[in-house]
Amino acid sequence: MRYTISAPSTLIVNVHALRTPSQVILEEHFSAEPWAGVKVEELAAGTGENRFVRIETGKAKELTITYKATVEVTHHLVTASQLGRVAVEKMNPGLIPYLFPSRYCQSDQLGRLAWDKFGKIRNTYERVLAVADWVHRNVDYVRGSTNGSTAAYDTVIQRAGVCRDFAHLGIALCRALTIPARYFTAYAHDLEPPDFHALFEAYIGNRWMLFDATRLVPLNGVVRIGSGRDAADAAVATIFGRVRCDETTVSCKVVEKGFKALTLKELKKKGVSLDAA
Predict the structure, then answer these.
(1) Which 3 state secondary structure label does DSSP give 21?
(2) Cβ atoms within 10 A of the Cβ of 61, count?
(3) In which residue ranges of the chain is pLDDT below 50?
(4) Which residue among 89, 129, 183, 269 is the one 20 to 30 A from 177 at the CA level?
């Protein structure tokens, strides 16, 4: 990522692959140039869901951030029949914030739509799958059609958006159905054009299950960067100061030969999780 800096500023960057039991980082390199006068500090996130880096630009006029990693990811397949609803009274307290409305996911305004469309589906996994399918069918993927202020309710009206808008709407509908859901940023294999990608996770059967309403990438071809209530918690870069992003280049390639992308037919019977069993 290349930036032009007009005044001393601070950036909070979230581009590192997350370390989890299902995601092992074999190699990685992070740099911020120029070296002289720029302060770089990795922060320990309180929730453990993101690896933030704080960059103080000092007097630098330009900044180039580079991140490279080789990551071994285990995508767990879970039979759909095993993915039942988790009652609110039995939820771990850490899940409760993912039931509440948030800045970009106004679940409190989408309850009637959610229950009208999906309330009759009994199996929880099938219900969330239906949510993702409905978003895919009813929202057009149009690059540049939304901005940083666009939220789930706007997407229902405009019926157009990019990956973050698809994810926000999926999250909002799930929360309206009393299903914990969270935002998920990733590096994604086969994404065209290459970029950072946003998906969402729903908590079903005592684990986080992964969904992509855009259907642009295989669910077993993603590397987790971070999670949060919505994009405000997991932005790739949050800028405090006068900084302009001039260029972002992203690439994600499969190293292992013989990789086979999961099909939509397979995902009707089995869900994908990056949670260890």
Answers:
(1) coil
(2) 11
(3) 46-47
(4) 269
> Which domains does the chain possess?
76-233+263-273 (3.10.620.30)
Check residue 212 and report its DSSP letter: -
**CB-based contacts of 144, cutoff 8 Å, min separation 6:** 162
First to last CA, the chain: 35
Q: Which of 13, 66, 80, 74 is nearest to 35 (CA)?
A: 66
> What are the structure tokens assigned to 1, written together?
């990522």
Compute φ and ψ for 42, nearest 5 degrees.
-80, 135
How does pLDDT run across 196-206, given as a tens digit for each residue? Answer: 999 999 999 99
Q: At what angle do helices 124-138 and 111-118 cross, to 10 degrees?
A: 110
Integer Cα distance of 253 and 242 in angstroms: 33
Tell me, what's the pLDDT at 16?
96
Strand partners, 40: 55
Cβ atoms 14, 51 nearer than 8 A: yes
Q: Tell me the helices (H) and strands (E) count for the chain, helix number first.
A: 5, 16
Cα–Cα distance between 243 and 99 in angstroms, integer? Answer: 34
Residue 277 has a pLDDT of 60
Q: Which residue has the tokens 């990019």?
A: 162
Based on its alpha-carbon atoms, the radius of gyration of the chain, rounded to whole angstroms, reads 19
According to the model, what pLDDT value does residue 43 have? 87
Summary mean pLDDT of the chain: 93
CA 51 to CA 14: how far, in whole Å? 6
Q: In whole angstroms, give the CA distance from residue 21 to residue 274.
A: 9
| Under 8 Å between Cβ of 118 and 130 | yes
Name the residue among 57, 51, 48, 114 with its Cα closest to residue 240.
Answer: 57
